TrEMBL record:
PROSITE patterns: TAT
SUPFAM superfamilies: PR-1-like
Pfam families tied to this protein: CAP
Domain SCP, first and last residues per copy: 165-290
InterPro entries: CAP_dom, CAP_sf, TAT_signal
Signal peptide start and end residues: 1-32
Organism whose genome encodes this protein: Pseudoduganella albidiflava
Protein name, per record: CAP domain-containing protein
Matching PANTHER family: SCP DOMAIN-CONTAINING PROTEIN
Keywords, alphabetical: Signal
UniProt keyword GTP-binding present: no
């Protein structure tokens, strides 16, 4: 997840801080196979049968776990060395929160591959942090891809302003330390439709072009966008974030970062707007909060 804050107290005075948190990656990669590439659904069925009644794992009694969804997209991934699995799955149209792969060499059939998997990788087969599986028969063995697809549920847009405002005003109601700066409690903010429009327009821009920045490629910044939306500001600031799935997550992420926290606690701001948009390919949410007077 990523956040960035921007403040503009005078027209030409600006503060920009960016915190980027890279997604976890695996030291393997994948390339999409042609559509006619063979795959092995029987191995996935054997793995699910084992999850239903494992009996034991590494000499210890093991409880049953839910079956994995057999995903065609995961059965069309060929593991190669040198790149990364998760970005390759994204390029193949299957974005994930987590993915891993197991390679079994020399197994003549699915039953033999399953025997090796039970012996060497039973803990991974019984993992509850994955929910989907794909299996591929290759010339020298078998690939098993385990994944947890990216969550696609979205916050309700009709209540996002009130929800974000409530979280922000709860934070402003008490003194707060933002990095090395101490802030007194600040009066509550109120929503402003023009600031909502400015925030939403920037979130849509970032989601459309997958470009995480306060400044758009045409050079516009938050003050320009607010003016275009009809808000004549004296003091203005902006927080942005990407990856958070709820308003509470977005606000908490901002409060955990000194620059964003300082914007939220700034008593000079009296109104705010907020909006999110979703990248249609990756499904990532982009958030914008505009604070102003």
């Amino acid at each position: 997840m990523s956040n960035s804050s921007f403040s503009n107290i005078a027209r030409r005075a600006a503060l920009l801080s960016v915190a980027l948190v890279p997604a976890s990656l695996l030291p393997v990669s994948a390339l999409a196979l042609p559509a006619q590439a063979p795959h092995a659904p029987n191995l996935a069925a054997l793995i699910n049968a084992y999850r239903a009644a494992p009996g034991s794992c590494a000499g210890t009694s093991a409880a049953s776990v839910p079956p994995l969804a057999v995903e065609a997209a995961l059965s069309q991934i060929r593991i190669v060395s040198g790149t990364f699995l998760e970005p390759a799955l994204e390029r193949a149209g299957y974005p994930v929160e987590h993915a891993e792969a197991v390679f079994i060499s020399g197994a003549a059939d699915a039953a033999e591959a399953m025997e090796t998997l039970r012996e060497k990788y039973c803990a991974r087969l019984l993992g509850t942090d994955v929910t989907a599986i794909g299996t591929i028969r290759v010339a020298d063995g078998w690939h098993v891809v385990l994944a947890r697809p990216e969550r696609r549920e979205l916050p309700a847009p009709e209540g996002i302003g009130e929800e974000t405002l409530a979280a922000v005003n709860a934070a402003r109601a008490a003194p707060r330390q933002c990095g090395d700066r101490q802030f007194a409690a600040a009066p509550p903010l109120r929503l402003n439709p023009a600031l909502d429009a400015a925030a939403l327009s920037h979130s849509r821009y970032m989601a459309q072009v997958r470009y995480f920045s306060h400044q758009q490629k045409n050079g516009s910044v938050v003050g320009d966008r607010a003016l275009r939306a009809g808000y004549k500001w004296r003091t203005i600031g902006e927080n942005i974030a990407s990856g958070q799935r709820t308003a509470q997550e977005a606000v908490q992420g901002w409060l955990d970062s000194p620059g964003h926290c300082a914007n939220i606690m700034n008593a000079a701001f009296v109104e705010m707007g907020v909006g999110y948009a979703v990248n249609p390919v990756r499904g990532t949410l982009y958030w914008t909060q505009v604070l102003a007077r």
